[in-house]
Amino acid sequence: MGFSRGVAVVFAVLFALASVCTARQESSEGHLYPQFYDRSCPKAKEIVRSVVAQAVAREARMAASLVRLHFHDCFVKGCDASVLLDSSPSIVSEKLSNPNRNSIRGFDVVDEIKAALERECPSTVSCADILALAARDSTVLTGGPNWEVPLGRRDSRSASLSGSNNNIPAPNNTLPTIVTKFKLQGLNLVDLVALSGGHTIGMSRCTSFRQRLYNQTGNGLADFTLDASYAAQLRTRCPRSGGDNNLFPLDPPSPAGFDNSYFRNILAARGLLSSDQVLYTRSAATRRLVRLYARNNAHFLRQFARSMIKMSAISPLTGARGEIRRNCRRSTTPSPAPGEPVILSIVLLFTVS
Q: Which of 119, 247, 293, 304 is the most exposed place for a label (fewest CB within 10 A)?
């Protein structure tokens, strides 16, 4: 009787505590703000900035890779660091998707940031927030705009291979398809064109634009919207077959500098990817934005920052949802079954004991 009564009391206390904690956490759901870690991990931003700076100093291309990592995360299930999860018995990693396989990178840098943060303030800073901060810091390091990053995201316990395959815009997507994929994330045409300007830094593989050089519409001819001399130059290192992983700068005039020369390339029919050039050739609305950003670098940089803040707020996990991973590649706790109360695991634990 005494034991049973004691267990009942423990259950009651645990349930009450869980209810109070959940209520407190849920009261702040959906609210991201730059000062989120000011008390719990005051050096968080400094640590992220330092590790990113070292990584970019070692390899300039890493800046673009970290921006892209954040983008590919947010377009699948929201900005929840699902892209970082490795495959496991319960997870098929997004790293295996067509947009990511043998392409997406920067995971080692994220691991390095996370390890430094865990030493400073264990189980506090989410991997999702690391991605948002690293993308901002990478942009600043290459000469791009600065912005305050809203923080407070939590990490997903699951990944979506199908979401990664279907939601991320592809280099050969038509403009209507790209527009639709952005709209599904709550992003408009202004966001689409400004965020495409992230291609002012970084590299692309031959396999991502080969079709433009040899068989754009299935008729065996090159893409007529691509400057002929530029196409000839690209063919020297991007043959009809082989050389899939040969790298080319997305913005040859300033491949490591964050500026508006990407848009000037498009005006000159020298956008490397089809998804770049269609911004000028397939829509009057996007064409106006390309011309605007090509003329006014400051305007582009301001809008890029605004659109990055907007993108980084896509469906974040906050409050009691998700978790704070200790290792960005693995979920700290298994994802509960749909509809399963969290308290059930506590009850089962005591029952078994």
A: 119
Number of domains in the chain: 1
User: Domain of 278: which CATH number?
Assistant: 1.10.520.10
Range of the domain at 91: 43-202+250-312
Residue 6 lies in a domain: no
**39 φ/ψ angles, rounded to the nearest 5 degrees:** -100, -40
- Residue 35, in any domain of the structure: no
Check the annotation: does 82 bind a ligand.
yes
**Secondary structure of residue 138 in the 3-state scheme:** helix
Cβ-based burial of 104 (10 A; exposed 0-12, middle 13-18, buried ≥19): buried
Q: Tell me if residue 154 falls in helix, strand or coil.
A: strand
Burial 241-251 (b: 16+ CB within 10 A, else e): eeeeebebbbb
Q: What is the pLDDT along the chain (353 residues), one digit of tens a residue?
A: 454 444 444 444 344 344 334 333 333 445 899 999 999 999 999 999 999 999 999 999 999 999 999 999 999 999 999 999 999 999 999 999 999 999 999 999 999 999 999 999 999 999 999 999 999 999 999 999 999 999 999 999 999 999 999 999 999 999 999 999 999 999 999 999 999 999 999 999 999 999 999 998 888 889 999 999 999 999 999 999 999 999 999 999 999 999 999 999 999 999 999 999 999 999 999 999 999 999 999 999 999 999 999 999 999 999 999 999 999 999 987 555 333 344 333 333 333 33
- In angstroms, how far apart are the furthest CA atoms of the chain? 88
Domain annotation covers residue 231: no
Quote the tokens at residue 66: 């970290």
Q: Any binding-site annotation on 10? A: no
Task: Tell me which residues are annotated as active site.
Answer: 72
pTM equals: 0.87
CA-CA distance, 197 to 289, in Å (whole number)? 11
Any domain includes 235: no
According to the annotation, is 111 in a ligand binding site?
no
241 is in an annotated binding site: no
* Spatial distance between the Cα atoms of 129 and 312, rounded to a whole number of angstroms: 9
Question: Tokens for 233?
Answer: 């130059």
> How many Cβ atoms from other residues are within 10 Å of residue 21's Cβ?
11
